[in-house]
# Entry
Amino acid sequence: MNDQEREAGRAMRRRVLGDAHVDAAIKPKDAMSAAKTELSEYVWGRIWTRPGLSLQMRSVANVALLTALNRPHELRVHIRGALNNGLTPDEILEVMLQCATYCGIPAARDSFAVMRDVLEEHGVPARAFHE
Amino acid sequence: MDNADFETGLAKRREVLGLCSTSAAPPRDRYLEAFDELEAEYMWGMVWSRPGLDSRTRCMLQVAMLVALNRSAELPVFIRAALHNGCSREEITEVLLQANVCCGGPAGNDAARIAREVFAESARP
# Structure
């Protein structure tokens, strides 16, 4: 990975996940952090920046993958990312429903709860779910 | 999908879970409705309502699978459902011991902690 890719990846990570998340993620300075930073620079600099899929589609993939993998903390981060990338709450709901049939109801139910939390935190009013 | 599956599913869910529904508390909204509708038709209507296994057996299977899947939010719901459908505490304990050796010790320990909490909710019948 060259410096240009590394820079593009850093910018992409901030664009998708927001400054607050990235600043908190890179804050720890311990033995693990340098290596972890390298790995995440690869993810963002070499994968997320590829032109072959839109950011919305990459977010759809991530929400589904993290549901299947049972990784609720990372899922929370990427539901925020999906909203930043322009997915609507209704589209995220559709991903969850598809996950319900491919990953199992309990998996989708857990992710659904995370989604509701994130939407609330984003100020999506409860009445939006009734419209 | 035939809407009969949805109706059958709702009835089956009520029968199996009794008062310990997996559904979130009201107020209802269209997001929860979409989710619950899928669960009622697809899980409760099309599978749990099949005659080939009784609900008591399906509850024990569900408990074992939730342990294996590390889905601890629904595990207490189905341990309660197992009790409600005639499984004894001893039988549930046997399921969890088998999960312990099949899914690993940490899975078994988490499940045992949750089961103790559920058992403590009600006096032994």
Notes: The longest helix of chain A spans residues 31-48.
